[in-house]
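I trust your eye. Have a critical look at both lines of this record:
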Amino acid sequence: MTADFILVSNDRYVKNLGICTYSVLHNMCPEADRVRLFIMDCGITEENKQRLLKQTSGFDNAEMVFFDIENRLNDIVPQKKTSWNRAIYGRLFLTDLLQLYSDIDRIIYLDCDLLMDRPVTELFTMPMDGKCIAGVSDGEDIPRKKALGIDPQYTYINSGVLVIDTARWVELDASNRIIQYINSFPDALVYPDQDGINYVLCDEIKVIKPVYNMMWMLCPRDIPKMIAADKGYLYSAEETDDALYHGKIYHFAGRSMWSFYGITPVHAIKFKKYRRLCDWRNEKRHFGGFRNFALWAGISFKRLLIGEFCLTHRKMKEKAD
């Protein structure tokens, strides 16, 4: 089996890409015959490309391919600008990649601010039920559907992890349709790429378990609030508890790996594990301002005060047993 993954980055996020791709190789290379990492390159320096390739060369059955799309990003011009870095649109040019690699039947898209901690081999063989993409329900499911005018019967997913049926993607002309939607939307989209994917492919989504995209905002302690606010919320506290302590993919979802080490202790533990192994192990912590430092200090004090790391290690051991 060939396990194909697509990721997107520019040079600003290359250290996230470095630790993310290492975690994928570490877990998938022992399971698959071949692992291919397709990097949608939005401006990565040659020095960092060589660094990524060197890290990949440590795995005999792995290959990393850079696909330059920096100029293609000019095709996406929202009517109202947002603060998002335009690299977020990189995945939308999947069709360009598929024109060169016709042997890709299924590909998994990964944000580079996540870590894989267990193999996800089953995502390459599971039935797609005729759907184009599969993903984990987002914590803002109901509000985003209302804002975008998506029918309540559908599920708004987080686009940080997407299992994609490539033939169906091409058949639906998904790349062009999503780009057209983003360019024609009259107001500023909150999550431009994710909103576009959910709107255009709303009836083409298969929902998968939270173990495949464990986001800090899906912590079990927050689930009762979500269920109270929305009776249609898909995941139970038990499901997310299992995903948190025995997940397969941990998503930092907008929280910097390199400053917070994760908003939950589990995310922090997973980050430290893979940082020690990857080529970016000596990268220094960077908060990017006093506000982020103050937030990190407050979270750290709280964890120390209630012994959260001790509790987390104990629960992780219980789940493993």
Remarks:
- The mean pLDDT is 87.
- The radius of gyration is 19 Å.
